[in-house]
Amino acid sequence: MKQSRIVITGLGLTAPNGNQLSEFRQNLLTGVSGVELIEVRYMGSQPAGVCHFDPLKHQKKKDIRIGTRAGSISIYCAREAVADSGVNWEAFDKSRAGIYLGITEHGNVETENEIYNISLFKHDTRFWSHHHNPRTVANNPAGEVSLNLGITGPAYTLGAACAAGNLGLIHAAQMLRLGEIDLAFAGGVSESIQTFGIFAAFKSQGALASHPDPTKASRPFDKKRNGIVVSEGGCIYTMERLEDALARGAKIYGEVAGYCVNSDATDYVLPNAVRQAECIRKAIAHAGLVPADIDIVNTHATATPQGDIQECQAIAEVFAGCPDVNINNTKSFIGHAMGAAGALELAGNLPSFNDLMVHPTINVDELDPQCDVPGLVLNQPKKAKRVDAILNNSFGMLGINSTLIISRYRA
Length: 411
Fold this sequence. Notes:
Elements: E1 6-14, H1 21-30, E2 35-40, E3 44-49, H2 61-66, H3 69-85, E4 97-103, H4 108-119, H5 132-136, H6 140-149, E5 155-159, H7 164-177, E6 183-190, H8 196-204, E7 230-231, E8 233-241, H9 242-247, E9 254-263, H10 273-286, E10 296-298, H11 305-318, E11 326-328, H12 331-334, H13 341-349, H14 352-355, E12 357-358, E13 382-383, E14 389-396, E15 400-407
Parallel strand pairs: 3-7, 4-5, 4-6, 10-11, 10-14
Antiparallel strand pairs: 1-8, 1-9, 2-3, 6-8, 9-15, 12-13, 14-15
Helix pairs in contact: 3-6, 7-13, 10-11
């Protein structure tokens, strides 16, 4: 059966170092970090990636008060994406639009805050918010977007740990090919910095980053890396079948070429290089390509000692004998945006189709020999010979792996 070609036609994002693609991209090319110190309940100052978008651009104060931070991030990104797409949104059949947002977790923020609040009143549940339930259901971010944009088609989230950003796009492509919808809002979102629990958990695991300079705390591949910088953020794309995009004369950022999602089935937290390599290979095969056809590999690498090594082993195995592959990392600039990570990191690389520039991994003062993979772009951007295919890795806890390949659109 011949499948429809699926393309990206719009993009909206908020990252710790930019609220539009042009700003985000410029900061990736010039080495501008978005990591800063924030106060975390019970833990004091911690490096984190904080977004500085204006939620009132697309929401009323009442909506912000009732809703969630993840909802505001989602609404901002979705509104910016549909505006960027050029779709005549007022005339569009809202029942033919779908929302598919990847998340790592949801509900922690509101639950922690409510428990803390009632602790100040001797745990009297009269002080518990009656907005708690709609704030904490897992579909909240997608639901808030549906309310804001009036979308009556399917709207739900995809819980896939830190592989979720890729999964939002993968699932959207599948729904478009099935004919369930005509326009997808797809990507990933995260409000993780609003919860002390995630900071505390990473610290207890010995996996929370620290550094005297917060902008240097996120340092994948560096010999002195010491953990994850927790970040918030979001990136949502509009996606369409190619024939629909061409019919309305839409600009096209790129085409979904291939993907794979698999599972390690070996450990709660520790990654499995064999399964990661398998995921990468299957995505390349699904795209009808070979490893040498890939021009940019955006790594998942979170700056945990073992995680970076495992992924580098997988990449080295798959791309052995591919001298022109360029390998970079976006978390060094913004930290780990969890459910949003894959979608944001893809966005940072998409302009390479036009300018052939590959943004680097920053903060690598001394490369870990176990991460010394041929093709790493470190500290300074690089001009590529060719950028026709971008491979985006996103891996998550409980062993979920996702690899997404976006190719240059050609008629």
